[in-house]
Amino acid sequence: MGMTTPWTELVDPEMPLPAYPRPQLARPGWINLNGRWDYAINDSRRFPQKFDGEILVPFSPETELSGVQRSPKPGEYLWYRRSVSLPESFSGKRLLLHFGAVDQIATVWVNGRQQASHVGGYLPFDLDVTDAVEEGELIITVRVSDGTERGGHTRGKQRTRRGGIWYTPQSGIWQTVWLEAVPLCYVRSLRITPHFDEAEVEVEPELVGDEPAVALFNGQAYPLPGRIPVPDFEPWSPDHPKLYSFHVRCGEDQVQSYFAMRKFSVGKDEKGVPRLFLNGKPFFHNGLLDQGYWPDGLYTAPTDEAMIFDIRTAKESGFNMLRKHIKVEPLRWYYHCDRLGMLVWQDMPCGGGRYDPLIVSAPLITGIHLPDRLHFLFGRAGQASRKEFRSELSAMVRHLYNCPCIALWVIFNEGWGQFDAKDMHALVKSLDKTRTIDHASGWHDQGIGQVRSEHVYFRPYNFKADRRGRAVLLSEFGGYNHAVGGHVFGKKDFGYKRFETPVQLRHALEELYLTQIIPAKEQGLAAAVYTQISDVEDELNGLMTYDRKVVKVAPEVMRLIVNVEN
Questions:
Q1: Are 192 and 307 contained in the same domain?
Q2: Is residue 33 part of a domain?
Q3: How many C-beta neighbours within 10 Å does residue 110 have?
Q4: Are residues 41 and 81 in the same domain?
Q5: Residue 88 within a domain
Q6: Category of 458 on φ-ψ map: left (φ > 0), alpha (ψ -120 to 50) or beta
Q7: Which residues lie closer than 8 Å to 52 by C-beta, 6 or more apart?
Q8: DSSP-derived secondary structure for 431-500
Q9: Residue 165 lies in a domain
């Protein structure tokens, strides 16, 4: 057995990840389709004549939890098949088949009839399969192709030749699959916007059918779309993560949801220094980089409890923010951040062609930030790749818009596949006027937006105010390495500064925060993101080991070290 986590053995092979996957649009009539599916890997686009065995969905075939531990080669296809018998309660209703995420290109058939194709490995898609049902039975077949870095699709930090900051690629279904029964008229989606200063929340439903919708809150009904008064509300914050429940009814359909009253902005403190604000007051974002990788499940956490452990450990260690790095998590992860009180910076997964190290790192060497309209320099010469990125960026913002915890969107990271950041910033702003936007985390700053975002490794950090008057974010720093024997992924040890003992690591962190971060915060630094929450494969610079079995610096000690108060 490979590297495991404390939750590996707790995965139920009959029903892994059993919880309802969409907490802000929940209804009772559903079937979780996680569990054992037939799978095959071949080089044909036609239905396989036979299957290779069983795979445990939603774990990718590369993972130990899947039971397969095999990766499709270039030019091969990954196939899934499962039969479903519908309960009597589903009779006479529309049937929606949901996929949380499938990496990268998926085509779906139901009872031999093609239903849909979807491109992109990080976002959900659904399809109405009602007309394909035959005598209460469904045979679901999925074909997946995944070129990883070939083709310019979004891929995050996956690379065929893993190593260093690049990790084992994974493919196929990696989030929950479920089937839902809905009336002819139903709520397809909600857009929830808290209006903090007006003590109201705005709810805009997307409806299928011609029935009107109402919101049920505090014993009263409010017509939708519209605003709901929330008098004497309790503001949401990491110290007080207050959530409000409500329901939306459309004809015979009723869904449960929640919201929080909070406000994100950029403003000047009493000294005229630009800061990040929460609920109208300066609030220092004290964060950790969070890659969201697991040794037993890669992109997929083994259980909800595993996700909760990471969030709680970060919080107990004195951090109030996680930067979700170049990955989109299942909605339940954001729900746990919402209810536990953890701010989130959400990265857009990167993509495009090959990255030229000299171009990407030019600002580190020369101090020059290149104009990103030069698409070919950034691996974005292909128009189709740029169009696909725009579409997925828009879809990600819409998908996660309702999550109270998300405070900031990160569009590009360190120039990887960066292009037309000014236009991308305007696009995100048109979709979401309630959050801050980091258009270029690290470097290749295009001089726009309300924040300047810097990455500093290998040298001491010295705060410098932005000459354009933007709030300054230290969006990556640290990366201190410490290998814990018996809890490492392999023989390689990648990081930015190595320490042999836990005591040395602790003292180095104390010095880092005491001499650099805390003084910078007093001078005007608005946020700091330490690299990182856990080791990931060769990267041994986490505050926890990759298997989550050792916390390298005790949370109560780390809390004293960071010691950044608002």
A1: no
A2: yes
A3: 22
A4: yes
A5: yes
A6: left
A7: 39, 40, 41
A8: H-SSSEEESSBSS---S-SSEEEEEE-SS-------TT-PEEEEEEEE-EE---TT--SSS--B-SEE-S
A9: yes
Widest Cα–Cα separation across the chain: 72
* Same domain (yes/no): 450, 435: yes
Domain finish residue from 134, 149, 182: 182
Tokens describing residue 221 = 């009904």
**Could you tell me the two tokens for 468?**
């354009």
Six-digit token string for 26: 């929940």
The whole-model pTM stands at 0.97
Residues 6+ apart with CB under 8 A from 413: 325, 326, 347, 350, 441, 442
Rounded Cα distance between 196 and 460, Å, is 39
Q: What's the per-residue H, E or C state across 301-367? A: CCCHHHHHHHHHHHHHCCCCEEEECCCCCCHHHHHHHHHHCCEEEEECCCCCCCCCHHHHCHHHHHC
Nearest to 237 by CA among 344, 345, 341, 316: 341
Q: Are residues 254 and 306 in the same domain?
A: no
Q: What's the CATH code of the domain at 236?
A: 2.60.40.10
**pLDDT digits over 145-176, tens only?**
998 888 889 999 998 889 888 899 999 999 99
Calculate the alpha carbon distances from 418 to 263, 345, 414 in Å.
29, 18, 8
Per the CB < 8 A criterion, the answer to whether 94 and 186 are in contact is: yes
- Dist CA 510 CA 521 (whole Å): 15
State how far the Cα of 335 lies from the Cα of 392, in Å rounded to an integer. Answer: 22
- 246 and 288 part of one domain: no
pLDDT classification of 285: cutoffs 50, 70, 90: very high
Q: Is the same domain home to 480 and 547?
A: yes
CA distance 294 to 7: 11
42 Cβ neighbours under 8 A, 6+ residues apart = 48, 76, 77, 79
Which residue range forms the structural domain that includes residue 98?
Answer: 8-182
pLDDT recorded at residue 464: 96
Among residues 135, 162, 182, the one where a domain terminates is 182
Overall domain count for the chain: 3
Task: Indicate whether 275 belongs to any domain.
Answer: no
Q: Check residue 1 and give its pLDDT.
A: 65
Distance CA 418, CA 407 (A): 22
Specify whether 431 is located in the same domain as 536. yes
pLDDT single digits (tens) 391-430: 999 999 999 999 999 999 999 999 999 999 999 999 999 9
Rounded average pLDDT over 54-60: 98
**Identity of the amino acid at 125:** F
pLDDT band at 105 (very low <50, low <70, confident <90, very high): very high
Q: What is the mean pLDDT of residues 349-378?
A: 87
- Which pLDDT tens digit goes with each residue over 384-393? 999 999 999 9
Q: Are 316 and 249 within one domain?
A: no
